[in-house]
Amino acid sequence: MKSTMDRNILIFMLVFLVFCQIGRTQEEADASGIDEKSARAAQNLTHEANQELRANDFVGAEVDYRKAISKNPENIAAPYNLGRAYYNRESFGEAFGRFKQAGEKATAKPEKHKAYHNMGNVYMKNKEYQKAVEAYKEALRNDPNDEETRYNLALAKEMLKKQQDDQKNNQNKDDEQNEDQQDQQQQNQDQNQGENDKKDDGEQNDDQSKDGGDKGNEKPEENKEGEGEQKKEQQQKPNQGDQPDEQKKPRPNQLSKQQIQNLLEAMQNEEKKVQEKLEAKKVKGAKTKNEKDW
User: What number of other Cβ atoms are within 10 A of residue 137's Cβ?
Assistant: First the structure.
């Protein structure tokens, strides 16, 4: 008897749930302008996709979820569950799109909370910590008692602070590197300028050396001219040593002793005249030197 009553109660509850689901589906269909048949088909497709996903048939589940969304765009379960499937496969871009779709369509706070919570998780994976903070805050507005969301929010704030500090430190490093590069460039410019100045000084010294060399070469030319004149004068002077020797040479069968004596006397006279001429030239040379000094 008791067993029969329990069975009847269970059947009653199942029938009640079915009617409630049908009524909810009808309300969604009426609100969106979708007929009851399409809404029920979307619900069935979502259920089938859930079963396929549990059986690790992602491709079949993805196809049925998409069909359910096309049958009833107001269906929240299909995009939300498809977003979770993408998230587990680390397809975060597709996952975020489906969570956002579910959050925008949801009217009940629990459904909005779940959608924004998962949107925050996607932002965390992409290291978009500022957006994650905003998504978790929106999730908490719809369910302030969710400790998991609260923990994720605190973690997102901490990661955001660290990210901002790292960006600031990197900016400071970049500024320091730029300053170092500017200092190095300035030092290179100063060094190049110093080398150019030394090079210009060296060229001026070379020019002065060349001028000095030209001036110094003038004197040897004058000396050469003097040496030339001196050699010329020496060539014009009679050779005192050679002349007596030539006159002393006897000429056999032509000169007598008297003739030789006469020649000797003539040579002595000639030598005396040469000595007088040399003395006269010496006097003239001294006079010329005095005129140069003056």
Answer: 14
Integer Cα distance of 225 and 267 in angstroms: 34
- Tell me the three state secondary structure of residue 245: helix
Question: Does residue 135 contact residue 123 with C-beta atoms inside 8 Å?
Answer: yes
CA-CA distance, 80 to 95, in Å (whole number)?
9
- The residue among 34, 36, 38, 42 whose CA lies nearest residue 22 is 36
User: How many residues does this entry show for the chain?
Assistant: 294
Give 221-239 pLDDT, tens digit per residue.
Answer: 444 455 555 555 555 554 4
Q: How many CB atoms lie within 10 A of CB 100?
A: 18
- Residue ranges covered by each domain of the chain: 2-166, 240-294
Give just the sign of the alpha carbon dihedral 216, 221, 224, 230: negative
Residue range 2-166 forms a domain whose CATH class is mainly alpha
Local confidence band at 33 (pLDDT 50, 70, 90 cut-offs): low
CB 80 within 8 A of CB 114: yes
Region 162-188: what's the mean pLDDT?
A: 84
Angle at 100 between CA 94 and CA 105, to 5 degrees: 130
Both tokens of 172, joined, read 């400071």
Find the helix or strand (DSSP H, E) in which 146 lies: none
Helices within the chain (DSSP H only) = 2-32, 36-54, 58-71, 77-88, 92-105, 109-125, 129-142, 147-236, 242-248, 257-293
Distance (Å, rounded) from C-alpha 1 to C-alpha 106?
45
> What pLDDT is recorded for position 222?
46
Output the six-digit token pair for 137.
Answer: 């805050």
The pLDDT value recorded for residue 289 is: 38
Average pLDDT, the chain: 76
pLDDT of the residue at 119: 97
Sign for the pseudo-dihedral over CA of 114, 116, 122, 124: negative
**Tokens 């929010």 sit on residue:** 153
- CA angle 234/239/245 to nearest 5° reads 165
